[in-house]
Each structure stands twice: as structure tokens, then as C-alpha cells.
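Q: What would this chain look like folded?
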Amino acid sequence: MTIKLGLGLPQMKQYDIGRDVPAVARAAEEIGYDSLWVFERILFPTPATQGLYGIEGLPWPDAYRSVSDPLMTLALAAAATERATLGTSVLVAPLHVPFQLARSLATLDAAAGGRVAAGLGTGWSKDEYAASSIVPFDRRGRALDELIDVCRAVWGPDPVAYEGDFTRIAPAEVGPKPARPIPVYLPANSPRAARRLVDRGDGWMPVAMGADALATSWARLRELADERGRDRPIAVSLRANARYSPKRDERADRAPFHGSVEQIVEDLTGYAQEGVDEIFIELQGTTRDASELTDVAAAVYAKAREAGV
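A: My prediction, written as C-alpha cells:
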């Protein structure tokens, strides 16, 4: 089964954002990648209030010390490409003013000719919430619900009007409108998140944590969709966080997508299962510069297609 392949854009401190983002985006599209992706980290606390992913004692990776703004990065990529989907995986939605984020995504989609995919999540960093959020950390789920509603309203027909807990939009014309309905991708890493996805989302954005676990989670999500009467399909875009090495990783406990190009592709084949529409590969953290990122991305793409992915 041939699936779509995507690539994470260079956002970290080893890259020259203004030069490398357009160059990598253009090269990825020429290689054949179907989509280009960004993620969001707004600061690197020293010391951190909590560990990585909220896990006590787990350190933040040095790569998070400087991460470019996701929407600015996608704007640079949009100007350098013509067909690739431009996705966020993910925007930490409650760190943004809902109305302004909705307008920014609409403007980007209009400018790019209908290529934006909005992956949205609640995040986990209390430090980021303290610095940026307009809502308390413990209300982040409700804030995401409202932000999705605000986006749907702003992207829809005029006059736009909305009344929520955090946002009030008096009847108004709001433009530009997106070139087409922007698909909203959501995680499903808790019962509430799974219900939100089934009820409000267009697609699922899991992280590759094991092919068997993915199949089990996907089956449960389909069951939930049936239970809640969803009558439209759920797109699946899988994120593969890779750690590239020029040599094979021969450790018995090698993590998925860690190692050489050949090993990364071997792992990709296990995830090309029923229901997965796309896999996008995050390589930027362990490549030295844009040239190496492009070379590795080209090798991964070629070998994946040779392997039938």
C-alpha cells in the first residue's frame, strides 16, 4: 500500500530559518514529498517547572532551546512550494488568541491555494502556559474546544458571530476566507481527546510508538466513531520522530526510527497499515544542517518508495 509521505521543516537552532526553510521545502517537494510539517515550542525554561511531556525528571532536549514560530515557518515554505500540504503537528492551541489564530490559518490557506492542515493540541508545559496562554492550564481542554469552534465560525460564511467562555465575536465580516475548508487534525491520547476527535475533528495525528499499539488504538477509535454516530471517515496522519545516524544502530533496545536510513525505512514499513493515509518523518533534530537534512530526506524517500511504502 502506497501512502503519502511528509517531512518536518527545519525550525531548530542549527538552521538559518530565512534561507533553509524555503530551500528544504522546495527540495522536499521536488523529491516527491506530499506534505511539509512544523511543530510548536515557544520557550526553554531554565530550570523547568516540570519535565518533558510533564514527566517528572525527564529533561527537555537541547533542540528545544530555539524553535522558530510555526506559522511564520509555514509562510516561508508556502512561498517556495506549489503543491505540498502545509501542516502543523501540532500548534499548542490554547497558547493563541482563538480569533487571531483562526484568521492567520485562513490567510495562510488562502495564500497557499488551499494547502493548510491544522493539527491542534492542548500541550503539556506549564511554563509555556504561564508565559503565553490566555486561559489557565487546567482549562486547556475547554480552551481547545472553543478554539475549534471559533475557527469553524471564522472560516465559514459572513456574518461571523460567536459567544463562548473566552471569545465573543459580534456579527462581522471576517476575511480572507480559506481557499477550502481547512481540515482539523487532533490527537486521541485520552478518552476526552478521543471524543473530541470523533465529534469535532477531520483527522487523527498519532505519534509512532509501535505498529501494534497503533493498530489497537485505531480500532478503538473506529469503534468510538461508530458509537457516537460519526458518518464520515477519519484521516490518519502519523508522526515518526526519527533520530538519524550515518551508521546502523545495532543496539538490542533500538527505538523505532532510530538509526540509519535503511533502519528508518524498515520501521516505516511496519506502519504502512490499513487506515494510515500519511506518515511524516521528523529528521531535523539529528541532522547537522539543511544540506544533510535534504540528503537524508531524499535517501529515506527513495528507499521507502522502493520498499513499497
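Residues 211-227 form the longest helix (17 residues).
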